[in-house]
Structure formats: structure tokens, C-alpha cells
Amino acid sequence: MSTSALDNAPSLTLDEEREVEQQYEERADHLELAAFPSSTALTNDAEEWIHSLTGPGAKLLVGPRGCGKTHLMRFAFTRCIIDPDLPLAVYINLNRYYTLEPLLRRRPEAMSTFYVWVLANVMVGCHESIEAFSAQGLDRSIDIDALLEFNETELRDLIGAYEKSQPLSTELDEVASRLTIDRVKQLLLRSADTLGRRRIVLLLDDAALTLTPEYLSHFFDIYRALKAARIAPKASVYPGTTEYGPNFHAGHEADTIFVWKRVTDQDYLPFMLDIGAKRFPDMSLVPNDIRELLAYCAFGVPRAFMTLVRSYLKNVKRQGTAQSTFNVTIDEFLADRVREYLTLKDKKPQFSSIVDVGKQLLDKMVEGVYDANQLLLEGKTRQLYIGIDASGVNDKPYVQRMLLLLQEAGMVYAVSSVSHGDRDYVRLVPHLAAVQARRAFAKKGSFSARFAVDMLSRPDEKHPVRRSMSTLLDSTTLEALCLDLPNCLNCQTKRVEGAKYCFNCGEKLTDESTYDRLMLARLADVPGLTPWQREKLSSSDTLPRTVGEFIALQDPGTTLRTIHRVGQVRAKTIIDAVQAFLDEYLS
Question: Alpha helices, DSSP H only, in 280-394?
């Protein structure tokens, strides 16, 4: 990836930055409910996904970050409010679970605290749902606190006390003691009866508690316990790091719904452009050819498309041509995608080596697609698929996990396997932003967005680019794949895979707090910051150095404004980037 253009780009003036930093909200959980009907692009597959969310039966929504899981859940929630034939929908966001992670190492009652925290969030969601549903029916006479037997303020205070590791007051301790699964189920059914709804769907968003596998397995115990004839839980999870535990079998306990829009679908481009038109009033400022190429580079992730459009509108202020603006936009975007993928090493340290090798594998796949398309420049087809000999993937857990982690970060899209002769091939599409950055859809020495879009719009080649894992990665690298287990925290002896106690000192083997470790991450390394912001944050002697120190500030905006040329607008963009890191990369 070229960095010279990024390093030499002049910074925007404050007026220019204020102009392009429009209030376009990219995260669905921050949108007002009223905005969903007009900001949602519906295709046949999207309608099927929403039907799964509003219908009976437990469901797991699987997909990488930004692919639209939250948007689908929130849209399904609004549809249930409007349609009296649909169930009572209760939306619950669990993305702040990571604040409870340190309790696992500090309090013996951490697991019971987690159970109460989840149930308290369900009851808060129920409060909000009854209020929204009753307002739609213009029946505002319902005493929600009496109906649910829990005061919403007390529930929120209880959740806040847990998340801040504060001791409970006598009143909050009494509230916690009344929160049981059986009681919550009774109150959910009572709520549905009161509102005249036959069923309840629980939309459990951000349920992939990847930082805390201990909590995650217990979450699915709660998920299964909440399921009933009239109660259907739906949870959003990730493909690579979600671990269901020994008591939950995803194929039997719930139907799996993969909700990532495939870039090779015939309706892909209209779908993405429809999203852009509904979410960006200034979409027309982006030339048509560039707009369509950005849609392909978003790789089926609506949030990525919005990020690319915003970045292009910002960069057009400081670049001379459409080509240079596009190149810088893709370079910035790809750098952030790679940086996000590499954060998996911090979230899941045991997979650090696997993540690093995964980046090598991605680069090799991109190179294979590049070579194939350079031979098709004058043809009538395109090549987006890499087919990896399944014999090098099946029955190799580390290779399988490597591919799943690449999927989780949205770096590759896995499609159904195919057979060719006597061999089966695992088919993958590498991220099109990386393929485009390699100039796969351009003739040497030239750039034409129209040519690239036309080439991407062609039908697929009959067969994928066929490779074996041993030709993509050398044998030494493949044989060295393993888990990076931390040393014993007591004596620092290297632990043995699968061991529960240290063979040297006999102490129980525990992992260090992932949350505490991530709080030590350098502030300047937070994804989403511009190169200029990174340089200022890393060179200042007065600013906090770590994320933990930054979020501990009582007034971070005032602190940031001590930097030369950082005012209210730029301070807000930095604060928003850190908050996005906490909300998304720690979720």
C-alpha cells in the first residue's frame, strides 16, 4: 500500500473540515427509530432476513462488523411496532459487556453478576419496547413500572453500578435478587398480552462477547433458557471468534442466518447505491464512476461504503484529481481495515500468530486475483474467486480458524465449495478494496474508474483461481501454526495447550484481563484517526498516551483543544473515534 500520498497530503482548513464532517450517522445503533423506514434498502435476501427476525424460532445472525446486523434488527423492531400482526419486539444491545470483563479476575461472583446484568438489560429493553409500542397505538395509560414490577431508573442504576464495578446499595441489591430467568419470561409474556401481541422476539444485538469466552458460554445458557413457545431469541454473532461453549450447539439450538451481502450478486451494485442515496444527501457530489467503484470496494458492508463516501468528499478538498482523491481514499480505507483485522491479536492473543499468517494469506490471494484479471483485461469475464484445495483446509483446525478470522474482519467472503475433477475447492473472494489497490482492474500505467466498474460488472469466470494452501503459504509457515498461549502468570513458565494448571508451580492457569490490556493501547493507534491526528497525539507531551488514560479524563474535549489547530470540531472527531473503538473494536 502506498503511503506517500497520505503522508504528503495537506491538512484541511477548519472551515473545510466542518463542511465535510456532516452529521451523517454511520452506526445503526445511533440512528433515530423514525429514520429506519426511509434509510433502509430492501432486497429479496434482506426481506428474508427480516422475516427471520420477526418470525418464530431462535436465530443467530452471523456476519462481520458493519455488514448490517444492527440495522436489520432495528428495522425489524420498527416494523413490529407498526404491524399489529407481528410480535412484540424487544431490542437489547449488549455491547458494553466488556466493562464486566475485569470482574472475572477480581470477584468470585462475576458470573452471577453477568447473569443479572443480562437480565437487567432485557428488562430495560422491555420498558423501552412497551413505551414505543403503546405510543404507536396511542395508548399511553399503561403503568410500565407496575406492569413489569421493576422501575426503569433502578434497572439502569443497577447496570451502571455493575459496569463501573461499584458496590450495590441495599435497594439495588434487592432489585438484583428479583431478576431471575423465570420471572423475566413471565413479565415478557405479560407485556405481550397487555399489548395484544401473540409472540415475543428478543433482538439481542452485539451478543458476540468475544473478549470474554467465559461470559459467552454462559450467555448462550441464558439465550437457551429464555427460549419458549412464545419467546424467540435472536442474537447477532461473528463468524470467527464466537465460541458457543459445550452446552450450546448452534446447528440444533438455533438457525444460522448469514447476513453479509455478497459482492458477486447481480443486484449488488443497485443495493449499495440505494443505501448511499438514502443515507447521503450529497452522494451526487461523487462522480458516477467513482461512486460505483467505491461501492464495489466497500465489499458488501454498508458502513464501509458510507465511510468511503465521506472520506472521498473530505479528500476531494485536498487532492488535485479524481484519480488521486480515489487512490488516497482507498489507501486510507484499506489501512484501517488491515488495522482493524490486526486488533484481533489484542482481543484474542492466543490467535496472534494465526492472525499474522492470515494477513500473508490474504496478500497471496489478492495477488492471485490480480494475475488472473490482468489476463482478462481484453476479455468478457472477471475473476474474483480463489479456490483453495479443500485437502489443505479440512481437518486442519488452525487453517480453518485463520479463514474464519479473515471472514470476521470482513477481509474475505467464503462461498460454497466446488468440485473440479477429483478435488474439492474452498472458494473465497478477497476484499475488493485490496484487489483494487493492487490495480487488478486497470491496464498498466492507466486509471479508469469506468473501465474498472465495467470489468467488475462482467460475469464470472467458470472456474476460480485454483491454489493449494501449500502454494499460498510455505510449508514452514503452515507447520508453525499454533496457539500463542500466555505464560503462567505466577512463575512465567510457558503453558501447555489444554492444561488447566501450571506443570511447574501448580497454580491454576488464568489469562490476563483483555480489557485491562486494551486500555493500555496507544491512543495514537486507535483506528479511524487521520494521519495528522495520529502525529499530533503521538508527539504531544501533555496528552494521555493510552486509551485508558484518555477515557478517564473528566473533560477530554478541553484537553484535546490544547493541541495547536484543534478546535471543537476536530476534538469531537477524535473523541468519536475513541468511542467507536470502545463500542466496536471491543465488542
Answer: 288-297, 302-315, 322-342, 344-347, 352-374
CA-to-CA separations, 519 to 207, 248, 552, in angstroms, rounded: 21, 31, 10
Residue 8: predicted pLDDT: 41
* DSSP single-letter state for residue 522: B
SS3 243: coil
Distance (Å, rounded) from C-alpha 452 to C-alpha 440?
9
pLDDT digits (tens, 9 = 90+) for 232-253: 999 998 876 677 766 776 667 8
Q: Burial letters for 462-492: b for 16+ Cβ neighbours within 10 Å, e otherwise? A: eebbbbbbeebbeeebbeebebebeebeeee
Cα angle, residue 265 at apex, residues 259 and 269 outer, rounded to 5°: 95
Supply φ then ψ for residue 423, to 5 degrees: -120, 145
- The CA distance from 240 to 344, in Å, is 10
CA 178/CA 156 separation, integer angstroms: 15
pLDDT > 90? residue 229: yes
* Torsion angle of the four alpha carbons 105, 108, 112, 117, in this order, in degrees rounded to the nearest 10: -40
CA distance linking residue 557 with residue 568, whole number of Å: 7
Q: What letter would DSSP give residue 233?
A: E
Q: What's the alpha-carbon Rg for the chain, to the nearest Å? A: 25
Residues pairing with 382 in the sheet: 460
Tens digits of residue pLDDT in 149-200? 999 999 999 999 999 888 999 999 999 999 999 999 999 999 999 999 999 9
Per-residue buried b or exposed e for 30-47, using 16+ beta carbons within 10 Å of the residue's own CB: ebeeeebeebbbeeebbe
Q: What is the pTM of this model?
A: 0.79
The C-alpha torsion from 102 through 106 and 110 to 116, rounded to 10°, is: -70
DSSP secondary structure string for all residues of 434-488: HHHHTTTTS-TT---HHHHHHHHTSPBPSSPEEE-HHHHS-HHHHHT----PPPP
Render pLDDT for 493-531 as a digit per residue (tens, 0 to 9): 776 666 767 777 877 666 666 777 777 888 998 877 888
pLDDT tens per residue, range 284-329: 888 999 999 999 999 999 889 988 998 898 888 776 688 889 999 9
Provide DSSP, 189-206.
HHHHHHHT-S-EEEEEET
Average pLDDT over residues 424-442: 95
Retrieve residue 538's grid coordinates. Answer: 503521538
Mean pLDDT confidence for 335-342:
90
Sign, CA dihedral 459-258-69-331, equals negative
Q: Report the DSSP pairing between strands 423-430 and 386-389.
A: antiparallel
